[in-house]
Amino acid sequence: MPVSRRFMALVSRLGILKGHFLPGQFNPLGTYTRREYDLARAYVVLAHAELEAYIEDRATEIAQRAESNWQTKGRHSGVIRGICASHNVRARQPWLPFTKDPKRISSALQSYKALVGNNHGIKEDNLLRLVFPLGIQYQSIDATLITDLGSFGSFRGGIAHSSIKTQQPIDIEGQYKKVEAIIKRLKILDRKINQLR
């Protein structure tokens, strides 16, 4: 099964960032100039932003497609049902059954769009908060992907929210490899997202 255009755009953008910010060849001893370390930190922050935007864009795309099918064809897809059920939980009314009431469906969709718009990160909670309402079950997501997203998100937070005086030199090649590993596993998730209806 092919991957989404949005996934291909993510891969392309991360390749551009690598070319802009990382050394052409990694030093086998892992020693770099201060400038190279600063550029690598920029790579981590920007790669994180691209991963976050990708997850949010895919979630929005699926929700919008389900909404369009509901409005034009009256189709109450699994995505619509999942978004409504998730909305009921967030509204502290998990007992409410799914109904075809347009006002309740619209309210749930608006709530989900706000949830996506207020997302700030790629860690486990961020990812699951966005994909679970669409129908992606926790067990179907590669556990290593969740772990890698969490550690990369934490590492990025340490860089973005602290002074250089408190930071240790980063493993430039290791961070690049972490992004590559995330992309490899995210590709599988992207294909699962493509199957949502």
Can you walk through the features of this model?
With 197 residues, the chain is an all-alpha fold. It has one domain. 69% of the residues lie in helices and 0% in strands. It is elongated, with a radius of gyration of 19 Å. The two termini are 15 Å apart.
Write the layout of secondary structure elements.
Blueprint: H1 5-21, H2 34-73, H3 78-90, H4 102-117, H5 124-131, H6 143-160, H7 172-194
In short:
This protein has helices at 5-21, 34-73, 78-90, 102-117, 124-131, 143-160, 172-194. It has 7 helices and no strands.
Kindly state the number of beta strands: 0
Could you tell me the strand content as a percent range? Answer: under 5%
Query: What's the overall average pLDDT, rounded?
Result: 94
Percent of residues in helical segments?
55-70%
Poorly predicted runs: none
Number of domain modules: 1
In N-to-C order, the SSE pattern is HHHHHHH
List its traits.
197 residues, mainly alpha, 7 helices, 69% helix
